[in-house]
């Protein structure tokens, strides 16, 4: 004779972090991919994860800090991209033409987005 008991928790006791909108995995992966790709000399291709992170943050994430960090990442990428496209004497690739200051800014903006996503996922309120 086997007695089995159910120890499952009811859905009503779920924490607030597990309810509501989930943060899409594509946004998180893109937030990590951008700084890695820029540091690895794939700056032009890193525009794809920038767009994925920006669109995903604005359409799927309600947290304002995540949206602000995604916008900062997009702007910090768009500035050197625009400079490279407009300059008539630019290098043959964005990675060779980008100023190291912009590389640092893009990496910092990517880190800010990763941290904002972690905070939003844990359900902690923003520090004011």
In short:
This protein is mostly helical and 128 residues long. It is 62% helix and 0% strand.
Structure description:
The protein has 128 residues and is mainly α. 62% of the residues lie in helices and 0% in strands. It has helices at residues 25-39, 47-60, 64-86, 94-97, 100-122. α1 packs antiparallel against α2, α1 runs antiparallel to α5 (100-122) and α3 packs antiparallel against α5 (100-122). Residues 9-20 have low confidence and may be disordered.
Write the SSE topology.
Elements: H1 25-39, H2 47-60, H3 64-86, H4 94-97, H5 100-122
Helix pairs in contact: 1-2, 1-5, 2-3, 3-5
Enumerate how many helices there are, as a single number.
Answer: 5
Give helix and strand order, one letter per element, not per position. HHHHH
Structural class: mainly alpha
- Please give the radius of gyration in angstroms: 20 Å
Q: In percent, how helical is the residue content? A: 55-70%
Task: Measure the end-to-end span.
Answer: 59 Å
């Amino acid at each position: 004779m086997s007695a089995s008991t159910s120890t499952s928790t009811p859905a009503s006791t779920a924490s607030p972090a597990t309810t509501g909108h989930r943060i899409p995995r594509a946004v998180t992966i893109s937030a990590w991919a951008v700084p890695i790709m820029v540091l690895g000399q794939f700056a032009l291709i890193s525009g794809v994860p920038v767009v994925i992170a920006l669109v995903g943050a604005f359409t799927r994430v309600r947290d304002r800090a995540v949206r602000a960090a995604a916008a900062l990442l997009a702007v910090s990428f768009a500035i050197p991209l625009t400079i490279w496209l407009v300059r008539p004497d630019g290098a043959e690739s964005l990675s060779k033409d980008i100023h190291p200051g912009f590389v640092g800014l893009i990496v910092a903006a990517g880190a800010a987005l990763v941290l904002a996503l972690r905070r939003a996922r844990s359900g902690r309120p923003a520090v004011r």
